[in-house]
Design brief:
This protein is mainly α. The longest helix is centred in the middle third of the chain and has 73 residues. The chain contains eight helices and four strands; from the N terminus they run αααββααββααα.
Length: 279
């Protein structure tokens, strides 16, 4: 019985570990780009947030996602376009016109018949020149309802298509977050490495400058020959060239970051310190 319990426990632990590993492998896109106001995040992540919010290339993802969301809403409401309602209001009336027509001469028999029927008031109307009688026998209200059955049957598919497009735009936005983080991380790594290289080259240039000054002094007092002096001069020239190249690499790396975040790197550092130090 103990062996069976141990076996069941081992299986449950294995399943638990598998589930945990599975969840650990899934990266939530929301963790790729933090809000700018998030405190305690690294400077690199803050630069990622700046790039996501300021760079037009990445801001378009939000617009495309909003458009896709609106298309889903329109597709769900489009069923109303399949119905047509018609409502008419009519009056039963007698309309008269005094244009055209000939006078009507009623006979004595007709006059007597009208009087007997209590319709003597019609005599004046009938005898009026150009009289026309129009009787409209339409119902007072007309109501109609039509349905576009073909569109109604395909409406659900259109909603499905719109929702799939929304899902694709959500994936595109997630991919954009991966891209912006990768680009900023890479640019910042190049920037920091270029600064470290500049520090090394700066020390080498200072050493070459000191040696050149020493050899120049000794050459003037004749303690070294021209070849030694010339070698120190050449070494100092190469060190100056390397220093210029290293400084250029730092400047270009900084420019690459600024192009991503939309502001000078020094200003970004100021905002970062303000946000994290409560300034």
């Amino acid at each position: 019985m103990n062996r069976r319990a141990n076996l069941i426990l081992s299986i449950l632990l294995s399943l638990f570990c598998t589930v945990q590993i599975s969840h650990a492998q899934v990266v939530k896109a929301d963790t790729l780009v933090y809000p700018l106001s998030t405190k305690g995040q690294s400077f690199e992540n803050y630069l990622v947030s700046l790039a996501w919010n300021n760079n037009p290339e990445f801001k378009t993802f939000a617009s495309e996602l909003k458009i896709a969301q609106t298309e889903v809403l329109l597709a769900k409401r489009a069923w109303a376009d399949d119905w047509n309602i018609v409502l008419n209001l009519n009056e039963n009336n007698i309309q008269t016109s005094t244009e055209g027509g000939e006078d009507i001469m009623l006979t004595d028999g007709t006059n007597m018949a009208l009087d007997d029927a209590g319709l003597g008031e019609l005599r004046t109307i009938l005898e009026t020149s150009g009289q026309a009688i129009n009787v409209n026998n339409f119902p007072r209200y007309n109501f109609g309802l039509t349905l576009n059955l073909g569109s109604l049957l395909t409406r659900g598919k259109e909603v499905d298509i719109a929702e799939e497009r929304l899902f694709i735009e959500q994936l595109n936005e997630d991919q954009g977050k991966f891209d912006v983080r990768g680009e900023v991380y890479k640019a910042y790594l190049v920037y920091t490495q270029s600064i470290e290289s500049l520090k090394v080259v700066t020390r080498q240039e200072q050493t070459a400058a000191d040696l050149y000054d020493l050899m120049k002094t000794r050459f003037k007092n004749g303690s070294v020959d021209f070849d030694d002096f010339n070698q120190s001069q050449d070494a100092y020239g190469r060190a100056l060239g390397a220093l210029t190249t290293a400084q250029e690499k730092v400047a270009l790396a900084e420019l690459e970051i600024q192009q991503l975040i939309g502001m000078p790197l020094t200003l970004a550092k100021f905002y970062y310190d303000e946000n994290n130090n409560g300034g």
